[in-house]
Amino acid sequence: MSAIAEAAAPRRPPRSRFTTFDRLEVLGPLFIIPAILYVVVLVGLPFLLALYYSVSAYSIFNPSWTFVGLKNFREVIDSEIFRRTLANTLIFTISAQIIGLLLGKIGAMLLMQEFPGRRLARALIVLPWAVPVSLATLAWVWMFDSLYSVINWTLVAAGLIDPAHRPQWLGQEDLAMIAVVTVHAWRLFPFGVVIFLAGFTSVPQDVLDAATIDGAGFWRRNYQIILPIIAPIIMIALIFGTVFTFTDLSVVYLLTKGGPINSTQVLGTLAFQVGILSGDVAHGAAICLFLFPFLLVAVILLLRSLRRREI
Amino acid sequence: MPRPAGKVVGQSSFYAAVVTLVVFAAFPFYWMLITTFKTDGDLYNLKSIPYWFNSPPTLEHLKYLFEDTLFVQWLSNSALIGLCVVAITLLVALPAGYGLARMPGRSGENLSIGIFVTYLVPPTLLFLPLARVVTLLGLQDSMWALVVVYPTFTIPFCTWLLMGFFKSVPREIEEAAIVDGCTVVGAFVKTVLPLSMPAILTVVIFAFTLTVQEFVYALTFISSSREKPVTLGVATDLIRGDIFYWGELMGAALISSIPVAIAYNLFLDRFISGITGGAVK
User: What is the rounded CA–CA span in Å between residue A97 and residue A245?
Assistant: First the structure.
């Protein structure tokens, strides 16, 4: 504040306003250049390199830049493991979004009410999204443990399963799928809660009151008034949530490493296995690039939503 | 939306729903907590009820964690990486956010959306080529590789947040300083920055938490135990053969995630308003 007061007291003859604007306009772009350079050098160029990898024969054992055209892509698409991986990625992403949004909406509706302990409840519900995902996933690995799983213990104690045939959450194909979806949804739904809460609070109360007076019931208010108003915000949340799940590597890597027998393999883990662990960089890059068309759609949708909110 | 009063059934099902969600969200953290302080005999016993202590709590696991593992080293690595990334982010994003906020017409807005969108480019798409870039820089298997790479996602997000904030700072303030003989940079440093402390604090917290949460780049670039940040070290190095050291693992996960969770919680509303482009205040 004192700086402003000082600045206001003229000491030198003022320059013309023209030069002021002139200089801001010259310096403005200079201010931006470092940020743009950083993004171009470490996001743009690597992306081009990924493109080139995918059409080359590059591997860490034979770092040749020979151009092989679309051979890598053809081989990747022909591989049954890849097709299963692509299907898994879609299944995980879609089911986690649906569960996350549903639980997010329910959670936000609950937290909209006033009740004792509401702040604590909100803080606890936000936890899964706030902590580092790799560490949170470790807790689930332990909860899904083959022998000492607390989930199995509870199911046995409740008499729901036979102690002699405990489910192997991370070792059976179908159960491993459920486990991965559960962890993704668990991680994502707090994000949904927070977004819906923000949306609900932004709906003007007088609009709701007017609707109620006009005879709109609970469902009508929900789906014909609130939902259309908050739709752009939900859209943005959905885009981010989808991108985070679709491109995730850490949850699956730590829970199942893509197993058993590739039943939970996703694009991220497969690319990591092929490109880093096996050193076949070219095929790894080709696998990663299957993320790209999907990301492009996400970016376009995001741009449209960001513009819409201003109209 | 007032709740209809006097309906006991409605009331109790409401609380049942709240409790169910809270338990679903928070149980894994309770599980970390109780596992940390249980004796091995208690942990690996199928007969006893796992939800509570069946033998007195112990500090064995924490003692082992702090004295016989590299946990403290990983924590300090993460802190150092976080601080460096915050510094780089501020150095780059502060001028960029300001420059964009003061660009004439809509060009600043459009350019900033362009930068923001790169936040959507995931590590999964870039880890292979960046591994190569890191090698070219001579940083393979070093935590400095992370210091170089992490700003790729903190800069876009923080530039965006800061631009929104700088737009709300009246132009007249810095113009007065310039009229007074300051340079453009001087006016920015002396008048705009002191007014922007809340935004800068937000950016610091976010750049730091985003950095501490990262896992994929760390996993790809670093293999020496001593160079690992805490997320990677705990997830990969506390496992000996096929045996998990669950007490140590959960203790480590708990200790490193709670501070991040608290910081994140405090600034959650700002993050939401950033991510929705200011649609929600």
Answer: 8
Omega cis (within 30) before A260: yes
Neighbouring C-beta atoms of residue B201, cutoff 10 Å: 13
A140·B21 Cβ contact <8 A? no
* Dihedral-angle region of residue B244 (phi above 0 means left; psi in -120 to 50 means alpha; beta otherwise): beta
State residue A87's pLDDT score: 92
Percent of chain B with pLDDT over 90: 33
A137 min Cα distance to partner chain B (Å): 9
Encoded tokens for B116: 């923001």
Q: Which CATH superfamily groups domain B69-230+248-275?
A: MetI-like (1.10.3720.10)
Instruction: Name which of A28, A125, A139 is nearest B253 (Cβ-Cβ).
Output: A139
- Sequential pLDDT tens for chain A (311 residues): 444 444 444 445 444 444 555 566 667 778 889 999 999 999 999 999 999 988 888 887 777 778 888 888 998 888 989 999 999 999 999 999 999 999 999 999 999 888 888 888 988 998 898 888 899 999 999 898 888 888 888 888 888 888 777 888 888 888 999 999 999 999 999 989 988 888 888 788 888 888 888 888 888 888 888 888 888 888 888 888 888 888 888 899 998 888 788 888 999 999 999 988 888 899 999 999 988 888 888 888 888 877 766 54
Q: State how far residue B171 is from chain A, nearest Cα, in angstroms.
A: 11
Q: Which CATH class is domain A80-308?
A: mainly alpha
Domain ranges of chain A: 80-308
Bridge partners (DSSP) of residue B240 are B243
Residue B277 falls in which region: left (phi positive, over 0), alpha (psi -120 to 50) or beta: left
Output the CA–CA distances (angstroms, integers) from residue B91 to A34, A46, A221, B134, in the order listed: 9, 23, 47, 22
Q: How far is CA A262 from the centre of its chain?
A: 22
Report the b/e string of A272-283 with b at 16+ CB within 10 A: bbbbbeeebbbb
Hey, is the C-beta of B93 within 8 angstroms of any chain A C-beta?
yes
Domain boundaries, chain B: 8-58, 69-230+248-275
Q: What residues form DSSP beta bridges with A67?
A: A56
Instruction: Give the tokens for residue B245.
Output: 């050291």
Q: Tell me if chain B has a CB within 8 Å of the CB of A119.
A: no
